[in-house]
Design a protein that fits this description.
Blueprint lengths: L16 E7 L2 E7 L11 H9 L7 E5 L5 H10 L4 E6 L2 H13 L5 E5 L10 E6 L7 H10 L4 E12 L4 H11 L2 E8 L2 E7 L10
Parallel strand pairs: 3-4, 3-6, 4-5, 6-7
Antiparallel strand pairs: 1-2, 7-9, 8-9
The chain binds S-adenosylmethionine.
Length: 207
Amino acid sequence: MAEHYFTRKPESTSRTAELAVELRGHRLRFLTDAGVFSRRDVDAGTRLLIDTMEPQSGQRILDLGCGYGPVGLAAAVLAGPDSSVLMVDVNERAVRLAEENAKRNGVHNVLAIVSDGFASVAGSFDWILTNPPIRVGKAVLYAWVEASPAYLRPGGTMLMVIRTKQGAKSMADQFARVFPETDTIAKREGYRVLLGRARASAGSESE
Ligand SMILES: C[S@@+](CC[C@H](N)C(=O)[O-])C[C@H]1O[C@@H](n2cnc3c(N)ncnc32)[C@H](O)[C@@H]1O
């Protein structure tokens, strides 16, 4: 049976490939491998998420389900060395590649760790960025959305890219149940980027 890309320990024979891509005007090189999502090119949904995010200097960013690292590394480059990016994935091969790709691109403000969803994530973030593993099913992904406010700083933002035909509408409803502010901020090539913003700090409403 074909191995899912979200297997914890891919057994598939390693078949590394190298990609050189331009993301938000930055040339980045990625080592990819069999058993890891979108090994032949940066996925169209991933690109839309990268084109939409606005990480800033000094911010903390979480890349949830990082794969070989395109979202987290692009965020680290865009936000600059005063930001910090945590990249997590359940797939150990993906995490090793994300680490290696940070080195290859001379990006030092990132850390890649194995984590099942938020299980090994500590602290809070200005951005949670995710191109989620749709095949794990709605229940798991809804739980990620529900858990996310606890990992966001006041006013922090979750961005999720999702195929319009793979449940974007019902996921938008889940965002609306969880976040005080939600929007669909981009649409391209059959993908949408959903935004959920955490409540700003107490007292900010009267400021
Ligand atoms: C659609 S891929 C996106 C990968 C990468 N962010 C990109 O855009 O190329 C989803 C990722 O989620 C990871 N994943 C699946 N289940 C997970 C879980 N329970 N916890 C963390 N990551 C998971 C997969 O291994 C995969 O790398």
